[in-house]
Amino acid sequence: xxxxxxxxxxxxxxxxxxxxxxxxxxxxxLYFISEGHKRPSxxxxxxxxxxxxxxxxxLKELGQHELVTKMIYPQIPPKVEYSLxxxxxxxIPVINTLGKxxxxxxxxxxxxxxxxLK
Length: 118
Hints:
There is one protein chain. This protein has helices spanning 13-21, 26-34, 40-46, 52-64, 86-89, 92-104, 106-117, and strands at 68-73, 79-84. By secondary structure, it is mainly alpha-helical. The chain has one domain (13-117): Winged helix-like DNA-binding domain superfamily/Winged helix DNA-binding domain (Arc Repressor Mutant, subunit A, Orthogonal Bundle), CATH 1.10.10.10. A two-stranded antiparallel ribbon has the order 1-2. It is globular.
């Protein structure tokens, strides 16, 4: 079993947010699920650079943090859909605000990110 090298710090709201949303694709997954993309294959198409394994792991963590629910329909082949919980829905305005901030500062952010990668 995986053992963390750095202990979890839950001393403030930012620590809690970081613990729940840490992961490259989690905010995008929440956003796309809120838009109605609920099937794993739809989410994979929306985020093609992410591997299915990573998306599944991050969806599982979002479920453990009670931000999404997973519905498995009893049919052959099994049909799986994700939806936001009431708690997950409260994050969408925050994610939208962060996205708008990123759009507003896109040129500057691209510049500093690319500079760092050189």
